[in-house]
User: Fold this.
Amino acid sequence: MCTLEKRGDIYILTLTGDDDHRLNPTLLDSISAAVHRVRSETTTPSALITTAHGRYFSNGYDLAWSQSDPDRHIIMSSKLRSLVRDLISLPMPTIAAVSGHAAAGGFILAQAHDYVVMRKDRGFLYMSEMDINLVVPDWFVKLLKNKIGSPAAVRDVVLRADKVTAEVAVAKGIIHSAHDTVEETVNAAVVLAEELVMRKWDGHVYGRNRKVLFADVLAAMNFDETVEEVAGANIITSRI
Assistant:
């Protein structure tokens, strides 16, 4: 689950508890509800920070929950895509304060924010799909290409399944900044949010410009071939 705190014009969304914040429908619905609340309450220039308690920012999809039924993979994918669409269209700057490990879908959730700041005393960014024999969805890759400037860095993230620490991530242009502790990471996110709010940008213009910037990602999110094609093939097989 998650909580939402408002400090002046800054919203802080926190994934609560000491688990690994697996992206199952319950957690995804909770985050989405918080983002919808932020959208509905905002009347002045604002910013959103997303962070988490415990050792993990998010360890990705809840594969244990989904393995019993292929339709559950579709549900998780659909809900994550809906959440990322909401973040892309949100009328304010967004910052992920990565407080620990962010793997697979958790890495993608962090990268769906405009800025990523990360603690360097614990945690890594990790696209685990190569190591667990899963195909990376096309929209994941398009998002990573949009956020990471170096093709070599994207290659190492996707095809080498590198576990990237905060300092290396800064050097490779994957994140905005690295900080010594989780407290310093969240504080840095707040300082950055305050700087962005002070620009007094029109939130609706900001959101529309972000949608233009991520147009190829939004188009790719209409379909997740890694779950929907598999589900379709299973249906055909069951009819034979």
Observations:
- The chain has eleven helices and ten strands.
- The two ends are 42 Å apart (CA to CA).
- Confidence is low (pLDDT under 50) at residues 232-240.
